[in-house]
Design a protein that fits this description.
Chain lengths: 373, 253
């Protein structure tokens, strides 16, 4: 069983690696093969995977995870400003600082559970958001957002070379982190994050987190101190969010407070629920769908609809365009909303539950057929 | 006494003007099944909650294995070796039977908290075998991959017992283990309790059902109006006139 388990882990990881690294190939036919969107897919993938470790495994619904996204971004930009344009220290700082902030926020919020926990995290998120615009402006640069400038010290870079002309760009030992190379860097991070998540899901630690979600009362009477388990899960998911925030800054060295707004926290909740709470792949599916709708679906306009329905007679074409146009373009959120409602009502376990249902139906059908023969 | 597991001395507890426990003295001896019976409102639940440290008494001491347990948290008391079975079976309904038992086994093995994220659960072979053994001792190993929530109440109770068995608890507290069960499930539970009696786990049973009490208990204490009015073997209790007046014949009181 032991060897089998290891082998299947290896299989999952190699498949996942292939799928992620070949994204530019298989996303091309659906019009999603451009670096900006690809980066978004993988960065939000990391965010959602991390969020799922908290929400999916322990059932604690946090509305404040955008805090760590923001903290990660600020930390990365500061690393670019003070130390070096290299992406490695930026990402490390982003993850660590987000972990520290998550420890503080989690320590306070986890004193309560259920709806009270959610409200506490939401309060923290709003607090951080407003602080970034007021007291913390020396760190966050307020509404303008934190940017690189020509007179930044960049201590480590200056040791090696003198400042060039114009603003430098984030790099990884000489490779610029914009465009496809940025995507591949983020993709490697996503693969590592997924591997860690897979490990946690299969570990005794992960099983205990699931048990806390199932019955925390019993957990205590079974001899577990549940608070440190919850806090560890909270910090891990905060660090994943910090990594995602850091990568946002790596691909585009700018950090603004709007990244910490509650809508950003809400978005990751939507992604996780849409894809499937507590499943390994679900959150990634959710990210894919939401980001695709946001970027591709929202670009469809009446003209493109007209050409899409051009095979129809004129009157039908007009009618179809009239019917469909409220749902595309700027109305993409209407589609998202409807989709979300349908999924929550009919498939509370998300899209992955839908796949599961289809799979069981197919296998039982097969069994019935075999029985007939 | 060296062979007592739980020692309750001079425990008093009042709720407002109501005296729930009045100077309770009770010693639970090792490897015995000690039943506590009494009519409704006699203070059984209060006594139980004092026994597990959930409720602090106004005065008195509760020593488990020679150590004070008053004011300790639930997980600390479990780690000391006191396991508890609830009136309504409390299990992890979304997990499989095996996972339920493994969680209990891991608590025994790893303590109240261990951050172990890089070890695969499938590598914990000894622990897994122990859990399977515990399930087979209650005759449920053939359904260990079933989801626990889908079982009958009687089976959930058996699973809960298996979780306590795998922890090899020093003292097992059973709060009305057959409450709300069908006759068949009750008899199954009695059989199981008798079977695990052999492995020498000390137990306290709080129970309404006299049939259950007289089939499994070694010692019975009768609680009435917050006081222990008698302690003795099942036969002694059956023939005790005070007990008969207060409880067994108390239906026409």
């Amino acid at each position: 069983m032991h060897i089998k388990q290891k082998r299947s882990d290896l299989l999952v990881m190699s498949l996942f690696t292939i799928i992620v690294l070949s994204m530019p190939v298989w996303l091309d036919p659906v019009g999603a093969n451009y670096p900006d969107l690809l980066q978004k897919f993988v960065i939000f993938g990391i965010f959602a995977i991390g969020y799922n470790i908290l929400f999916g495994l322990t059932g604690y619904l946090s509305f404040g995870h955008a805090i760590f996204l923001g903290v990660g971004s600020y930390a990365a930009v500061w690393s670019f400003k003070l130390l070096s344009m290299n992406a490695v220290p930026a990402v490390i700082f982003a993850t660590l600082l987000a972990g520290v902030v998550a420890a503080l926020v989690g320590y306070v919020s986890l004193r309560r559970s259920g709806i009270y926990f959610s409200i506490l995290t939401l309060a923290f998120a709003q607090m951080f958001y407003n602080l970034a615009y007021s007291v913390l402006t020396p760190i966050t640069n307020g509404e303008t957002g934190l940017q690189l400038s020509l007179d930044d010290p960049r201590v480590i870079d200056r040791l090696v070379s003198s400042a060039g002309e114009g603003l430098p760009v984030p790099e990884l030992f000489g490779i610029s982190m914009s465009g496809y190379s940025g995507f591949y860097f983020c993709a490697v991070m996503l693969i590592m994050a997924f591997f860690l998540s897979l490990k946690i899901f299969n570990s005794p630690f992960g099983l205990k987190l699931k048990a806390i979600k199932s019955n925390q009362h019993r957990m205590k009477y079974t001899g577990y101190n549940t608070r440190p388990y919850l806090l560890s899960a909270f910090i891990i998911s905060g660090m994943f969010a910090g990594l995602a925030g850091g990568l946002m800054a790596v691909t585009d060295p700018l950090a603004g407070a709007e990244r910490m707004q509650w809508t950003a926290s809400g978005e990751v909740v939507l992604m996780t629920i849409l894809g499937g709470i507590g499943t390994l792949y679900g959150p990634l599916l959710g990210v894919g769908i939401i980001k695709y709708l946001e970027n591709i679906f929202s670009a469809i306009n009446e003209a493109s609809l007209q050409s899409f329905f051009s095979f129809m007679p004129h009157w039908l074409n007009e009618m179809m365009v009239m019917l469909v146009s409220p749902f595309v373009g700027e109305g993409w959120q209407l589609t998202l909303g409807l989709m979300f409602m349908l999924i929550v009502i009919f498939l509370p376990g998300g899209i992955t539950e839908g796949f599961q249902k289809i799979k069981t139906k197919l296998t039982t059908n097969q069994k019935i057929q075999q029985g007939d023969e | 006494m060296a062979d007592s597991v739980l020692k309750i001395t001079n425990v008093n507890k009042s709720f407002g003007g109501l005296k729930a426990l009045n100077n309770i003295n009770l010693t639970i001896e090792k490897n015995k099944v000690h039943a506590i019976i009494g009519p409704n409102g006699a203070g059984k639940s209060t006594l139980l909650n004092v026994c597990i440290g959930l409720l602090a008494p106004d005065t008195g001491k509760v020593l488990f294995d020679g150590k004070n347990i008053i004011g300790k948290q639930a997980h600390e008391i479990n780690q000391m070796g006191l396991a508890r079975v609830f009136q309504t079976p409390e299990i992890f309904t979304e997990l499989t039977l095996l996972e339920n038992v493994m969680i209990a086994a891991l608590a025994k093995q790893e303590g109240a908290f261990k951050f172990k994220i890089f070890r695969n659960l499938a590598e914990e072979k000894a622990m897994m075998q122990e859990s399977i053994d515990a399930l087979s001792s209650i005759g449920m190993d053939n359904q260990m991959y079933d989801i626990a929530g889908s079982m009958s109440r009687g089976n959930k109770r058996r699973l809960e017992l298996a979780m306590c068995l795998v922890q090899r608890a020093k003292l097992l507290l059973l709060d009305e283990p057959t409450a709300g069960m069908s006759r068949h499930d009750t008899n199954q539970t009695i059989k199981l309790l008798k079977k695990i009696k052999a492995d020498g786990m000390t137990k306290i049973i709080i129970e309404h059902d006299m049939h259950v009490v007289f089939s499994v208990a070694d010692t019975i204490s009768v609680l009435a109006r917050g006081e222990i009015i008698a302690t003795g073997t099942p036969d002694e209790i059956k023939n005790n006139p005070i007990v008969q007046a207060a409880y067994l014949g108390g239906g026409n009181e």
